[in-house]
Amino acid sequence: MAGFQSLPGFRDFYPEDFSRRQHIFRVWRQAAATFGFTEYDAPVLEPLELYKAKSGDEIEAQLFSFTDKGGRDVALRPEMTPTVCRMVGDKAGSLKRPIKWFSIAEFYRYERAQKGRLRAFHQFNADIFGEPGPEAEIELISLLIQCLAGFGLNAEDFTIRLSDRDLWFFYLEALGFNDAQSRGLLSAIDRFEKMGDDAFKGYVEAHGPLASEVKDKVLAFLKIKGLPDLEAALAQFPSDKLATRLADWRKVLDGLEAMGLKDYITVDLSVVRGLAYYTGFVFEAFDRKGDLRALAGGGRYNDLVKKLGGPDLPAVGFAIGDVTTGLLIEQRSLTPKFINAPEVYAVIGGAAERKAAFADINALRASGFRVDYPFKELAFGKQFKAAAESGAKLALIYGGDELAKGVVKIRDMSDRTEQEVPRAQVLAVVRDFLTGH
């Protein structure tokens, strides 16, 4: 009889895999903490209508949705944005602004599983509510950079591609397109990098032929890769609104440069983020070297809280997933070899030595140190091999000679140097070694 297997697009996390995932979560949580973001959580099951209100009825085909035993139409969450908007909207009057929240949670999408995309996955989500100015973008983009740089990645590994849907709508309106046409063109632009000219077929079917000279202007704007070129392209359409928007661009870029992050930033108007709820700056983290391409994405969505029944509250956020992040750090050989390794391994002689070792092992564990030891009596050679393979930094040696003298021999596993320490001082010596004091 064949055994049961996990469903397509879902993962089992054996201890080694789980420890890798926890390493990713630790880096993300540390980044969020240093930026002053507060963690929250929410139900994994939400009313189906919440996602339809945000994305339209067509979203249901991408969801794990069903009617529950109470007759309610519900869905497993495919993302966190509608939920956090609902939560913030409910308590907006009592929350101190700016509201800086983050979460690490599991999500579910009914789509074909492929490299970097699964049906069940985890994401780090960070959002700022209540700040209408570009200061929120500076904060979030710098946090996104830290969420990747915390693994040892640098500007040669990834870039943040920065774009602006507001400027796209301004430019397309100046070219004579109405709102529906502009949205159709942005949908095509979102797919242009993957599909080339075929990306415009949907627009042509819905709105008619696109004049070649106009299409050339759209493609020229799409290919802009710097602020001077952007300013030059828009110089023919002077307005106070445009001047204010370009000032926001300079503030974002100058702020990130002042933080020392200039090398991570690329102006790239080909990024429009196909989701229609974005209202301003949009950005993506992009793999410079490999085939993973988009690593994370986000942008401003000033209208969504109100659309979902809350107050009129500006917002900006991003999400980064554990699947592509795990693949990226694996490709760059940045996954730690020993993620949950013991810090201390006890090498123990006979029964009497084991009793002495147990007292020290318990004291060390009670002080927060990770300690391991062999359950069964083994030859010293096998125990030293196990200590080396475990990744422990220290070995505590409990032999007959040490027991008779009332000491423990402590071996530094990196250089194999040893020292004898009185039993009463073991905890202090280990603490000093492992904490660097």
SSE blueprint:
Elements: H1 15-34, E1 38-39, E2 45-47, H2 48-55, E3 65-67, E4 73-76, H3 81-91, E5 99-108, E6 120-129, H4 135-149, E7 158-164, H5 165-174, H6 179-195, H7 201-207, H8 212-222, H9 227-234, H10 240-258, E8 265-267, E9 281-287, E10 294-300, H11 304-307, E11 315-321, H12 322-331, E12 344-348, H13 351-366, E13 371-372, H14 380-390, E14 394-398, H15 400-405, E15 407-412, E16 418-422, H16 426-435
Helix pairs in contact: 1-4, 4-10, 5-6, 6-7
Structural class: alpha+beta
Specify the overall morphology. elongated
The Cα radius of gyration reads 28 Å
Residue runs with pLDDT of under 50 for 5 or more positions? none
Strand-residue proportion: 15-25%
Biggest β-sheet description: 8 strands, mixed
The neighbouring-strand order within the major sheet is 1-5-6-11-10-9-7-8
Question: What's the total helix number?
Answer: 16
> Mean pLDDT, as a whole number?
93
Helix content: 40-55%
Terminal Cα separation, in Å?
58 Å
Q: Please count the beta strands (DSSP E, at least 2 residues each).
A: 16
Question: Can you walk me through this structure?
Answer:
This protein is an alpha+beta fold. Helices cover 42% and strands 20% of the residues. The protein contains 16 helices and 16 strands. Strands 1-5-6-11-10-9-7-8 form an eight-stranded mixed β-sheet. It has a five-stranded mixed β-sheet with strand order 13-12-14-15-16, sandwiched between helices. A hairpin with a 5-residue loop joins strand 3 (65-67) and strand 4. The chain is elongated, with a radius of gyration of 28 Å. The chain starts with 14 loop residues before the first helix and ends with a helix.
